[in-house]
Amino acid sequence: MDKNKHLDSVISTHQITKEEALFDKHVKKKNEIKKALEEKYTSDIYSPFNSGSYAKNTAINTKFDFDLVSPFKRNAFGTNGTLKEMYEDVYDFLYEKYKNVAEVKKQKVSIGLEFYEDNDGDIIKIDVVPGRELSQDKYKEDENLNLYVYYKYGNIDAGSERIKTNVKAQINNIKDRASTEKDSIRKIIRLLKVWKTTKYNYPTKSFFLELITIKAFDYKDITGSIWDKLETVLEYIRDNVTKDGFTLKDPGNSSNNLADTLTSTEKQQLSDDMKNMLERIEDNEENLKTYFPENLKFKKDDTNDNQYGKNNSMPIPPPNLNFG
């Protein structure tokens, strides 16, 4: 088989613009939740914004994951208020507002809202990520936030208040790199996200895959066809993720090591999965289709244009979107 032709088709059939109606439903629901948070917390909250794959232009149409970061003022929950109190207050508000129309659940650093199936059979999912500025009224200057860890997050214990980050810097990190790497980074990230959708409840988060892909490009000579580049990244993950001292620096806070969001067992699982995948594809190229399947829903109307749109060879989201 032609591995490059298949991977191009995988990228093309997973274009987010092919699910325009479902995408628009997510945007509408995101805006509704954003408005509700602003009306509830008024002057105690800064404008919530989207931080997920749409903001980074790395989305695929089989996994919608709108992340709505909600930045709160330092004293929003009292001068001695804790991050836990912030998290619980936001959860209580969202639960009371949406409990009859959605499953509202506490997640590692976010609050997940999964709205019940609508008349079209669509399910809308929005993750709200509460964060608090480090110093009162300083967020607009430094955009730094503290997050609360509700569930154990890799090696980060539940109840931890040590995740300090800059979400907008994380978004810009991928945007800036893509502009200098002729979109290779984004393509590989999208392919890894497609692979991740073949796994049920896989522990490795998309953000981890984004950062390790970028690190592979930093440390390896990644050239050639789309398969050549993907293979090199898979080999890099296989060979490095379990090494002692391996780090993934958070672009929003260099003191954060995102490698800590996976346990040693989860890192070994990721390495083993890369190893097994590479070996099976080497044994039989057709196995590539198992790990990186096309979205058959859109295969018939597939075209050669496998980008969101073009702007000096860099994909851009549809022009009328508002990410908050």
Helix and strand arrangement:
Elements: H1 3-13, H2 20-41, E1 49-50, H3 53-56, E2 66-72, H4 83-98, E3 102-106, E4 111-115, E5 125-133, H5 139-142, E6 145-147, E7 163-165, H6 167-180, H7 184-197, H8 206-219, H9 226-240, E8 249-250, E9 253-257, H10 264-283, H11 288-291
Parallel strand pairs: 2-5
Antiparallel strand pairs: 1-2, 3-4, 4-5, 5-6, 6-7, 8-9
Helix pairs in contact: 7-8, 7-9, 8-9, 9-10
Would you summarize the structure shown here?
With 324 residues, the chain is of the alpha+beta class. 43% of the residues lie in helices and 13% in strands. It has helices at residues 3-13, 20-41, 53-56, 83-98, 139-142, 167-180, 184-197, 206-219, 226-240, 264-283, 288-291; strands spanning 49-50, 66-72, 102-106, 111-115, 125-133, 145-147, 163-165, 249-250, 253-257.
Question: Notable features of this structure?
Answer:
9 strands, disordered C terminus, 324 residues, two-stranded antiparallel ribbon, alpha+beta
Give a verbal description of the structure.
By secondary structure, this protein is of the alpha+beta class. The strands form two sheets. Strands 1, 2, 3, 4, 5, 6 and 7 form a seven-stranded mixed beta sheet that branches. It has a two-stranded antiparallel sheet with strand order 8-9. The protein is globular and about 60 Å long. It contains eleven helices and nine strands. The N and C termini lie far apart (43 Å).
